[in-house]
Structures are given as C-alpha cells and as structure tokens.
Amino acid sequence: MHKVLLFITTVLFSSFSFADWQVETFTHSATDTESSSAMVRNEDGFELAIFRSNKGIVWMDFSLSDYDFDELSQNELPLFQIDDQKPVQMIRGFVATIVPEDEGINAIVFSDSETISTDKDFSVNHIVTERLPERVICPIFQGESRPHLGTLEALLNGTKITFKYTLLDGTKGQTQFTLDGAKEALNNTVFK
C-alpha cells in the first residue's frame, strides 16, 4: 500500500518538474489571470525562465545568482549561445524587438567606456533587451509573421545554453543551464 502511495505522489510531483526544468504557475492579483513559466535554476543560483505573454510573445528572462548582490553592466549586456549555434548578443533598449542579422538595421551599441557605436557585429545575432539591475528580459518568438532567431526551437532541441555576462564593476562571468527537460516544460507552458 505504501509503495502505491509513493508512486502516486511521485507521478503528481513529476508532472510539474521535468528533469532540471520546472513549471511555475502564478496568478496576477491585478488581472486575476493565471500565467505559467518554464524555468531552470543552476547550482550557482542563476535562473532562466521562459514564458508567453497574453499577446502570444514568448519571453526569455535571465537572472543573476541570488547568492550575491551583483548587478549587470548597464551597457555590456549578456551574450547567450545554445549549443554550437550562432551566439546572440543582447543590446540595450526599452522596446524589446528582435533584430535579425539580415535586416540591415544598425543597432546602437553602448560600451562601458560610454562610447556609442552603430557598427553591427555580424558574427552574432542581436536582440534588443530590457535590463534590470539583476536580470535581462527579451522576446525570443514574436509569432510566425515576425522575424525571429530560432531561439525557441533551439531551446526545444538543444542540450545546453550558455550565458556570458559582465557585472557593473566590470567583472566578466559565464554560466550554463541544461536543456534537459526544457522541451517538456515548454510544451506545458508556452505551447499550452
């Protein structure tokens, strides 16, 4: 009898957790609507969450470790790479928009030395990103009719995602997240 109860408890728990990825559901008090996100946290306390807005835009939210009180650089935002795909450089902006490499847009890039450039580095893709002190958020899918970089598909089929970041004090770092279980978690949130 105890084995049956243990099995039922395990099945109920595992329906919300997929390998290292989990599904978190919460209710917005202002709108009384429910939202879900697929998220993973690594052993160093960094967190990655993927969620879909009520307008159908899929967002990626990368947060620094909550073990420290670090802040991201204001100008040199993180770069991420899924497996061996082309890296994606996050660039500062207020309205988050995907900037594909072939669109010919000269993105404005700020450096920590306060220099401004419109020269675009074509060795990486770019996503205009909203920055908070300890996190960045950017769209990774804006619908079939809007250009995107294939990030959502890469998350579904990849094995790891790596973030390179610069802190406010100029310190550079790198962290990784496994994508083991991401497909199942995304299927239960983004594609639900």
Structure report:
This protein is mainly beta and about 190 residues long. Helix content is about 15%, strand content about 40%. It contains 3 helices and 14 strands. It has helices at about 1-15, 150-155, 180-185; strands at about 15-20, 20-30, 35-40, 45-50, 60-65, 80, 90, 100, 110, 115, 125-130, 135-140, 160-165, 170-180. The strands form 2 sheets. Strands 1, 2, 3, 4, 5, 6, 7, 8, 11, 12, 13 and 14 form a 12-stranded mixed beta sheet that branches. Strands 9-10 form a two-stranded antiparallel sheet. A hairpin with a 5-residue loop joins strand 3 and strand 4 (about 45-50).
Features:
single chain, 192 residues, mainly beta, twelve-stranded mixed β-sheet, 14 strands, 14% helix
Q: What structural class do you assign from the helix and strand content?
A: mainly beta
The helix/strand order is HEEEEEEEEEEEEHEEH
How many H/I helical runs?
A: 3
- Main sheet makeup: 12 strands, mixed
Helix content bin: 10-25%
The pLDDT mean sits at 79
The general outline is globular
Strand content: 35-45%
